[in-house]
Amino acid sequence: VKPGDEIKSNFIVDILVTYVDGIQKWIEVKPESWLQNEVVIAKHNAARVKSEELGIQFEVWTEMKLFGHVYNKRNMESFINKIFNGDV
Fold first, then answer.
1. Under a CB-based contact definition with an 8 Å cutoff, are residues 62 and 32 in contact?
2. Is residue 52 a contact partner of residue 20, using CB atoms and an 8 Å limit?
């Protein structure tokens, strides 16, 4: 299957945030290195179109947005430990 092909597919967004004022946001979490993949680009474009139809904001979060750097196993383990210890 190529991104330009007409196919029906389900796309489940990773996170749905609903703010107290009723505004909703879809958040898709992907590795930075995947953002140039044609299939990922096509899925994100479709999600943007659908979110606009529904009046929902759409964002893609990568490790750069979440952690300020590209994925690193040691940094990720440190971050997870901080979460479990209540330090975040």
1. yes
2. no
pLDDT tens per residue across all 88 residues of the chain: 555 566 676 778 899 999 999 999 999 988 888 899 988 898 899 999 999 999 999 999 987 777 776 666 676 677 677 777 876 5
Q: What's this model's pTM, rounded to 2 decimal places?
A: 0.66
Give CA separation, 23 vs 8, 13, 58, in Å.
28, 16, 11
Where does residue 26 rank: exposed (0-12), middle (13-18), buried (19+ CB within 10 A)? buried
